[in-house]
């Protein structure tokens, strides 16, 4: 009886794992396995890569931005419930509405909500990944 229960548990876990891995992301920006969303860039007339992200209690969506070193970047913040803003200290970029900077170094850099927005404020972060 105990062996049957163990075998059944293994089968259930395996089937669930196969289902979630095979279903994959339903859109180009959502990573369902990690829960993270990745921003999609557009190019404006100033040859900047532009991103638009929503800011609402207590999250940025998307919360990951990927750029190449040397790119000029503009991030527009859509404050949906209050004024959150964005603070990206490594590139000296801070504003309520949008930031612009040149991705001059590689690495992963955390951006933060600029304005106190309640109990989840300190966890309201996102990530910019700059690669070669």
TrEMBL record:
<protein>
    <recommendedName>
        <fullName>EfeO-type cupredoxin-like domain-containing protein</fullName>
    </recommendedName>
</protein>
<keyword id="KW-0479">Metal-binding</keyword>
<dbReference type="InterPro" id="IPR028096">
    <property type="entry name" value="EfeO_Cupredoxin"/>
</dbReference>
<keyword id="KW-0812">Transmembrane</keyword>
<dbReference type="Pfam" id="PF13473">
    <property type="entry name" value="Cupredoxin_1"/>
</dbReference>
<keyword id="KW-1133">Transmembrane helix</keyword>
<dbReference type="GO" id="GO:0046872">
    <property type="term" value="F:metal ion binding"/>
</dbReference>
<keyword id="KW-0186">Copper</keyword>
<feature type="domain" description="EfeO-type cupredoxin-like">
    <location>
        <begin position="45"/>
        <end position="130"/>
    </location>
</feature>
<keyword id="KW-0472">Membrane</keyword>
<dbReference type="InterPro" id="IPR008972">
    <property type="entry name" value="Cupredoxin"/>
</dbReference>
<dbReference type="InterPro" id="IPR051403">
    <property type="entry name" value="NosZ/Cyto_c_oxidase_sub2"/>
</dbReference>
<feature type="transmembrane region" description="Helical">
    <location>
        <begin position="6"/>
        <end position="22"/>
    </location>
</feature>
<dbReference type="GO" id="GO:0030313">
    <property type="term" value="C:cell envelope"/>
</dbReference>
């Amino acid at each position: 009886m105990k062996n049957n229960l163990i075998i059944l548990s293994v089968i259930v876990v395996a089937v669930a794992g196969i289902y979630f891995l095979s279903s994959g992301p339903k859109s180009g920006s959502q990573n369902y396995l990690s829960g993270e969303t990745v921003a999609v860039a557009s190019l404006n007339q100033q040859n900047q890569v532009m991103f638009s992200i929503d800011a609402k209690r207590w999250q940025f969506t998307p919360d990951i931005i990927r750029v190449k070193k040397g790119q000029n970047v503009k991030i527009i913040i859509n404050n949906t419930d209050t004024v959150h803003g964005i603070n990206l200290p490594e590139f000296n970029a801070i504003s309520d509405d949008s930031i612009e900077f040149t991705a001059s170094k590689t690495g992963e850099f955390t951006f933060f909500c600029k304005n106190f927005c309640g109990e989840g404020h300190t966890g309201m972060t996102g990530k910019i990944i700059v690669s070669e």
